[in-house]
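input
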Amino acid sequence: MIHSRIREIRKAKGLTLQDVADRAGTTAQTIGRLETGTRTLSLKWVNRISKALEVEGATLLALPEQGDIEIFGEINSSGLISQKSCGTVSARLFATEPTAIGIKENLGPYMAGDVLIFEKNGKGTKSFLGKECLVHHKNGTYYFALVIGGKNDKIFSLAPVGQKTGILENQEILNASPIVALVRKFE
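output
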């Protein structure tokens, strides 16, 4: 069954129903109905809302056969689960251009078997400075490191995550992709 992800994406972007409605040339009530499924999400609406939210049309749709999982409730502090539709979870929601790496051996807070999801193309220094990132070094190698301030927008210091090695200072990097999600399988 197909579910709409409009609400999730709208909230992730910090937009109100009215913000999306203004961008799509409709009313907040219509957007609300499309979010909850009380109004049919036609291809026409997918196109209008995807433009308003600045995402690909397919991103608005949750497709279980493609790995999207419906979140059917929320847990409160006492452990009680309130059953209400809370959207879906998918790597596509975490990043516009997701990329991932697997953890081979325990590494700091990460365990063997974990998968880390990164935003492939960090959008400027503010998106990755002070964060754990997949770093593409000028020499062609990749590091998983905390990116620390540097001399300019290409020279940074890197603190390898979970490693006992020292900080790599004044490293020229091509790109830093900040971590956005951790996937951990429990057995």
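quick obs: The CA atoms of residues 102 and 115 lie 4 Å apart.
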